[in-house]
């Protein structure tokens, strides 16, 4: 228990002579250095708040304005047109008797007010410019005069913005007109309904638009005026936090390691480098020094995206409640929580005020791996509580974890920077077993249902053979934010930190580091019974997941773009074709789009199944002539891009209808139209996992690619598909469905996707040569 004694600053013993007080010099030093680190962080935060608060101006511009005003006054001119004299008249004379001093103070006050007015004007101009989105809808090379004027956004964007510099200038998400949303909804469901069903839906929509819709819209506009974003708070609460079923599989998602490269086979070494990289990222995040190129800007432009989701990336946990969960965020944490062989550990990553080196973190991780202590009674499968239903976990948390040693240990996990799981299994990609990708993905999605802490903002998993992965909770942010962190860590691990010849982290280690602290628990039999029940629920859910992952190397976005087609539209058309061939019908299709052009924006739905896409697929399957099929394909692809742009610019369908439905529930009124809309199942749910190509050299090192990430099935009888565009030549797909549904199969749908991709390219390029029949590792052009 030596590490427990080091955790307190003093000990005392009561003797006959009195109290013998023993101060711990090491603990006091740690407390002092921790305080210094905390104050440094506060000072940096204060400095960044000032810089962000005056953006797009800079603090130094205040001095420029003051000097300019004083210089003008020196020439006996009055730039204030009498305002400085007015200010001077109202200055308290008792504090400033000298007339020159009064004039100087008045001039400085006027200069400050003028400076603030200029900042306000610049910010309003920038906000107005950022509210203009018609540039998205214009064809390349055809820029309107309005868009040319809009290009002034570069002038008002300032220089070297910090991560949150644009937050105050981003526009609020607009509320679409009822008639526009209803019209787009009816258009989107037309290919899914016969004439009788469509006539019924049209009648419901007309009744809603002419009566209840206007009342709900009025309240929604009132909310939009009052709140920063009329969607995001309800979306987080009602879509995520109020869900009472398991978040494992149903909500959490995962990200994968490199497909063909394992930087080191040593588990502790891989953890040492990557954990150090995560904390380097957090340091940049706290200082707002993250480069905005791919995180908070539209790639290739200066158009900023909202960065609000980054605030809860670290030190965040989802807390269960009986009616609704909450997301709890702490300002700082200097340790991580680690799980290994049924034990939980607290591992400090800061020593004497400094971040441990990769070699030192490896040394500490190895200590945990070598620790022979058994788990406490009931500890081994404790994490199953976070994998099962939320209400039993909420009740158990209040009953068994509200006091004593259990509360202290649970607090340690929940307040950690993030969670780490050290697996005893080997996982990843093996050359002679293509199915290894599937088992690897399932391990990242749910593991053994008790060896992850699914409530943490994210969990990093390290396998015995050096592979790793990430599992992220969904309520606090969306995948692009986690993806940026994950790929930054992968890039830093391999291309900046590296390993020595033996596969260990570089550098020296201080063997006097205090050992990781094992957490203690006192789990009563009643709690163990609840753990077993939650585990049974989670295992049944995990056992029903059919997951298939594959990389498609016949061609990539490079060849598609040469055909002047959007890669995303091409893939979406392939998914529509694959689903039609698999199910012989069309379905309501969900594609996630972001609305981060607006303040606190999250996502919107692109309904990829359209009249144009269904007409094209019918023509393709019906054997129509090639010119006609080509024309319909381009119309469908262009329609998809138009829908995507509408979703990005706040003119989507589903978030507006969702908020109208929530408002109707608050008002206690029922709408048959909204009820039917909300009951429509998404049998094909899709999302593109972003690839931050600027972090990797895929030209010289194409083997450093990942299969992106994935998520569980959304509908009981549907598919969840996550795909990634990896460089110019590779596409990857993660397909999920349920084994209990006899009409779906992840492998069969994967085969249909491969065939659809090839058929579409064959349509665009008729003389396409024979495609590859097997996947193989890409060769590097030169050594790393």
UniProtKB/TrEMBL annotation:
Catalytic-site annotation from UniProt: 474
UniProt subcellular location: Mitochondrion outer membrane
Keyword Ribosomal protein applies: no
Keywords: Acyltransferase, Fatty acid metabolism, Lipid metabolism, Membrane, Mitochondrion, Transferase, Transmembrane, Transmembrane helix, Transport
Carnitine O-palmitoyltransferase N-terminal domain span: 1-46
Annotated GO biological process: carnitine metabolic process; fatty acid beta-oxidation; long-chain fatty acid transport
Bilayer-spanning residue ranges: 50-74, 104-126
Gene3D superfamilies reported in the protein's UniProt record: 6.10.250.1760, Chloramphenicol acetyltransferase-like domain, Choline/Carnitine o-acyltransferase, domain 2
A GO cellular-component term linked to this record: mitochondrial outer membrane
Keyword Zinc-finger in annotation: no
Pathway: Lipid metabolism; fatty acid beta-oxidation
Taxonomic superkingdom: Eukaryota
GO molecular function: carnitine O-palmitoyltransferase activity
Catalyses which reaction(s): (R)-carnitine + hexadecanoyl-CoA = O-hexadecanoyl-(R)-carnitine + CoA
InterPro entries found in the cross-reference section: Carn_acyl_trans, CAT-like_dom_sf, Cho/carn_acyl_trans, Cho/carn_acyl_trans_2, CPT_N
Family: Belongs to the carnitine/choline acetyltransferase family.
Name of the protein: carnitine O-palmitoyltransferase
Naturally occurring in which organism (per UniProt): Sander lucioperca
Taxonomic lineage: Eukaryota, Metazoa, Chordata, Craniata, Vertebrata
Gene, per the UniProt record: LOC116061178
